[in-house]
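FORM 7B - TANDEM STRUCTURE REPORT

SECTION 1: FIRST PROTEIN
SEQUENCE AND TOKENS:
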Amino acid sequence: MSEGYAIELYFDPALENQVLKAWNGLARRQISNQLIEIESRPHITLFSTSIIDPLKLENVVKVLASKQEPLPISLSAIGSLPSGKNVLFLAPTPSLFLLQFHSQLCEAMKKEGIEIAEEYRPDSWIPFCPVAEEVPKNRMAEAFTVLRDLKLPVTGYAMDIGMVEFSPVRELFSFVLGGTGEA
């Protein structure tokens, strides 16, 4: 049974490889390999929910993707979420392009009657690219040190948008930004 669903932005290969370096560095040191194990892909989560009909969102995402050129992304900071899951992330600079794209997605979902949880609403959303989950508390400082070796910022583009079911991660659909078809 599914734990939930998410709409995610995916990166160009060079930026994706920079994020994978972080994942692999943390896994090699046996700090966290959770994202690798659940077969995730480097991303920024735009929306997540525990229950939804994915078919209801497929056309919304497809139309939005067709109207949006690839988004410039600069992963420029390291952070941690104040949750029990001990998540570490790389934070993108919150550019107007990224914030407007997220806002447009939320507006399109609202028009379809889709409820958006507080943490994904435009006025409270924190964009982030997860690099580790379930980091043991006594290894957080070490994990931050590993991430500092990335020489931030790392830059590139968000090239496509997709919906996944988790966990493990299974892509349901994805579309190239600025394209007319599936990724």
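SECTION 2: SECOND PROTEIN
SEQUENCE AND TOKENS:
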Amino acid sequence: MGLWRAAKSIYDNDGLIGLFQGHSATLLRIFPYAAIKFVVYEQIRSVLIRGPDQETNGRRILSGSLAGVSSVFFTYPLELIRVRLAYETRRKDRKTGFLRTCRDIFSEDASKASEQRSKILGIRNFYRGFAPTVLGMLPYAGVSFWTHDTFHDIFRSPLFAAYTVAGGTASSDRHTPLTVWAQLTAGGLAGMISQTASYPLEVIRRRMQVGGIKSIGTEAAGNSSIAKTARIIYGERGLRGFFVGLTIGYIKVIPMVSCSFFVYERMKIILGI
């Protein structure tokens, strides 16, 4: 299903509000997620990269990857709720909402278990798909921060500085601000490249997250391993199945990451960090 057909189907079934399902969980998640990611990145970077001689690609990627994993660990349940709210459509006999989705996730696969075991299973359900998320976050966050910092270096070089650096002078200082368009470009490219690098694991993660919903297909993936879920996806659509929705992913991620890095860099200047 293409982008416009999918949007039309959601609008026909749920109206305009259907296009914003899961938005409340997104807002609740994005504040701690972004705060933890950027703070941890700066802290780890200060440990791994103490001077210009340690400014290597590997250290940049490692710093970004660890920051991404840290932020995901603390905010993953909200991410799962967001995906489920966005996936489930409204039905006349059943309303969807934040609290109801939480109860549904908690009760899945726990009806026949003992009371103590059902509580453990209920909590575990909020981390369904956590493993592929972490694996996907390693390249996503690592490549994102690495690409962002690399383009900063390029834009601050003598070749581009007159057009991209706020003062028009080349500088190796990472705190030297770029012009608005250069900063947005660096962030947008970081989002595009990191999204491409991690997208197959993103598809596996989403499939595992919605696996508790019985209507997703003939073979549920909620309790499957990463390998088994990957085989299900490959069996249905082949290699193309791992890149379904990448176009809409670009439309979302490029402006989101671009704005995110822009605000991050500008707030550091304003706060004197």
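SECTION 3: OBSERVATIONS ON SECOND PROTEIN
The chain has ten helices and no strands.
Residues 265 and 271 are 10 Å apart (CA to CA).

SECTION 4: SIGNATURE
Preparer initials: ____
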